[in-house]
Amino acid sequence: MTTPATDPAAEAVADLSALLGQLAGDQAPPAPEPPVDEQAAAEPAYRNVEAFVRDYLVHVVERRLASGPDSGLNWCPRWWAHPEAISRLYALWRAWETLRVSDPQTGMSLWWRDHLDPHLSALTAEYGPFTRCNPTKHTEPRPLPVELAPPEVLAQLPDT
């Protein structure tokens, strides 16, 4: 079954009528919601985070890489071996896929500003997960040290 095509002229007239009504002080009709089927049916551009990093991210991010005493971006070719990197890059991929569909006009600008810039800064920072790596060398991640919390401390928490 096919859905009837919308008439662009009718939509333009309806938009103009709504605008004129607002200018005349009429109550504006609620904005139509985008069809849920369209967003739900949108296939991801990249099938997983690995494809996103390999086929998109490494091609659009241009930074000088650290090598020896030269300053530059700390990057690890085995990014997938760092738990923090996996989590952050997965979040970047999902945000990119969502914004490209939900906000095709400004979504990519928002993605760069609100998602990529802070995550890339954290990943490649002096104390970030790639700090002991460089483009030709991977160093295994070291988890933060942790000690078990005493039961009397846990008992004070509201979710216990």
Description of the molecule:
The chain is an all-alpha fold. It is 48% helix and 0% strand. It has six helices and no strands. The chain has helices spanning 8-23, 36-41, 49-60, 83-102, 107-124, 151-154. The radius of gyration is 24 Å and the shape is extended. The N and C termini lie far apart (54 Å). The model has no long low-confidence stretch (mean pLDDT 83).
| Strand elements, count | 0
Quaternary form: single chain
Distance between termini?
54 Å
Low-confidence stretches are none
Task: Please summarize the sheet with the most strands.
Answer: none
Strand and helix order: HHHHHH
The number of helices is 6
The rounded Rg comes to 24 Å
Please state the average pLDDT score: 83
Based on CA inertia axes, which overall geometry fits? extended
State which percent range the strand residues make up: under 5%
Percent of residues in helices = 40-55%
Task: Please identify the structural class as seen in this structure.
Answer: mainly alpha
Any chance you could write out the topology, listing elements then pairs?
Layout: H1 8-23, H2 36-41, H3 49-60, H4 83-102, H5 107-124, H6 151-154
Q: Could you give a quick summary of the protein structure above?
A:
With 160 residues, this protein is mainly α. It has helices at residues 8-23, 36-41, 49-60, 83-102, 107-124, 151-154. It is extended and about 65 Å long.
